[in-house]
Design brief:
The chain has 9 helices and no strands. It is mainly α and 205 residues long. Helix 1 packs across helix 5. The longest helix is centred in the first third of the chain and has 24 residues.
């Protein structure tokens, strides 16, 4: 579907930029920065494909790799030109929300197509949407963002539950995918705007 390809492209660009700026903040060299860009953009999809016993799409098609390279180059150019880190800006968070939604739904769909159970479908979408950031955080020695900050991974989980529910009701594939995509995106945007976060044990609820 064109819409998913388009949103997937935006997600790849946003995740690649996130990895690049993270590498710059960690004072990595050009190879390290580029590696983080690739890992953040492609890592979740690679893990997803391995789980379903499939050769990762990143290794069989040049489309995702090409988009990621463009994202890395544009991010490096922007930083060298303006010396600004966009990773904490809302515009990047919005693009990231699109990527989270598109990648999560892609994971849900692949899980369904491979006859994985409901728990597996939700988990596969979560891994696809957040796996790249998880890998890049581990590589840079940080506690993964999805485990400590913001209302992020929860958006994918909520979307996965709704996807499975609609699929069980035998709602059409197109409607299920579109509703889930919009839900994950909207919940993530609300979390950004409202500053939502999950309660911490020992902290203030």
């Amino acid at each position: 579907m064109f819409v998913f390809d388009f949103l997937n492209g935006i997600g790849l660009l946003a995740f690649a930029a996130s990895g690049v700026f993270k590498g710059i903040n960690k004072k990595l060299d050009l190879l390290g920065i580029t590696t983080l860009g690739f890992l953040t953009a492609l890592g979740g999809g690679i893990i997803r494909d391995i789980i379903v016993n499939k050769t990762p799409t990143a290794f069989t098609s040049y489309k995702d790799i090409s988009i990621t390279i463009i994202g890395i180059i544009l991010s490096l150019f922007f930083y060298m030109k303006f010396k600004k880190d966009l990773s904490t800006k809302k515009v990047i968070k919005y693009f990231d929300a699109v990527g989270l939604a598109a990648f999560s739904v892609t994971g849900f769909i692949i899980g369904m197509e491979n006859d994985i159970n409901s728990f597996g479908i939700v988990l596969l979408g979560l891994i696809t949407g957040t796996g790249g950031g998880l890998i890049s955080d581990i590589f840079t020695g940080e506690v993964p963002f999805i485990l400590k900050e913001d209302f992020y991974a929860s958006c994918s989980i909520i979307g996965g539950i709704v996807f499975v529910f609609l699929e069980k009701l035998q709602v059409s594939f197109e409607i299920t995918s579109l509703v889930t995509l919009c839900l994950v995106f909207i919940v993530r945007i609300l979390a950004i705007e409202k500053g939502w976060s999950l309660p911490r044990v020992g902290g203030k609820f």
